[in-house]
């Protein structure tokens, strides 16, 4: 696929920042679930946007889980897909209704960790949580590379309090693990896309108006 030679107006988060976010999330997950050797924990990367982030995070989590050479800890991995109206992009602009959620993996009775590229309005994550609980998940957590708080819907924030890490009444936001707080910009790269393009950029940047219009 060909696109503008310079589609990014500015880089928001470079490779080093992304690597730091990966390490932060992996350390958080290991502190949370490592003491139980990830027993009964299922990781569900949300495809396709989270594939780069999920791959990097899972590698680090696996390394941390197996730092003791005397025993091997395996990680259970599935995937999920949330389908939205066409032209919903990384900024959350466009149609926002989630049409359907597909899950690959047996979630019944499991602690599920959804791995996301970005949480903005919160609609997609709420729909995922509801689907996972309907399938019998014991509890749902979410690790996200980016959190775009400026676009969060109030009703979704409220829903998170009952849907994420619902077993932790003392800290209702405990179940959302954030790598980077993101500006309210039109972002692409490292899995984030616009009209099928820019996923493979090694950094996260702001898309130019020219690129948004599809001009080369």
Keyword list:
216 residues; alpha/beta; Rossmann fold; three-stranded antiparallel beta sheet; 5 helices
Q: What is this entry, summarized?
A:
The chain has 216 residues and is of the alpha/beta class. Helices cover 28% and strands 27% of the residues. Helix 2 links the parallel strand 2 and strand 3 (76-77).
Q: Would you write up a description of this structure?
A:
- It is a single chain.
- By secondary structure, the chain is an alpha/beta fold.
- It contains five helices and ten strands, in the order βαβαββββαβαβββα.
- The protein has helices spanning 15-33, 51-65, 123-134, 154-163, 209-212; strands spanning 8-13, 41-47, 76-77, 79-84, 98-104, 111-119, 139-147, 176-181, 187-188, 204-207.
- The strands form two sheets. Strands 2, 3, 4, 5, 6, 7 and 8 form a seven-stranded mixed β-sheet that branches. It has a three-stranded antiparallel β-sheet with strand order 1-10-9.
- The radius of gyration is 17 Å and the shape is globular.
- 38% of the residues are buried.
Show the helix and strand layout.
Blueprint: E1 8-13, H1 15-33, E2 41-47, H2 51-65, E3 76-77, E4 79-84, E5 98-104, E6 111-119, H3 123-134, E7 139-147, H4 154-163, E8 176-181, E9 187-188, E10 204-207, H5 209-212
Parallel strand pairs: 2-3, 2-4, 2-6, 6-7, 7-8
Antiparallel strand pairs: 1-10, 4-5, 9-10
């Amino acid at each position: 696929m060909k696109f503008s030679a310079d589609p990014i107006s500015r880089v928001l988060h470079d490779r080093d920042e992304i690597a730091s976010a990966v390490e932060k999330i992996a350390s958080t997950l290991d502190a949370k679930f490592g003491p139980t050797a990830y027993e009964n924990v299922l990781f569900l990367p949300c495809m396709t946007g989270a594939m780069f982030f999920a791959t990097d995070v899972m590698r680090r989590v696996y390394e941390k889980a197996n730092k003791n050479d005397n025993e091997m800890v395996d990680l259970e991995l599935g995937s999920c897909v949330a389908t939205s109206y066409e032209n919903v992009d990384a900024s959350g602009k466009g149609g926002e209704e989630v049409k359907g959620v597909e899950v690959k993996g047996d979630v019944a009775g499991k602690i599920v960790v959804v791995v996301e590229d970005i949480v903005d309005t919160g609609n997609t994550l709420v729909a995922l949580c509801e689907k996972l609980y309907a399938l019998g998940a014991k509890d749902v957590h979410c690790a996200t590379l980016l959190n775009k708080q400026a676009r969060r819907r109030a009703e979704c924030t409220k829903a998170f309090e009952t849907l994420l890490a619902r077993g932790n009444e003392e800290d209702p936001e405990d179940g959302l693990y954030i790598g980077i707080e993101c500006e309210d910009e039109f972002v692409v790269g490292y899995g984030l896309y616009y009209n099928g393009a820019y996923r493979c950029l090694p950094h996260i940047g702001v898309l130019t108006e020219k690129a948004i219009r599809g001009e080369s």
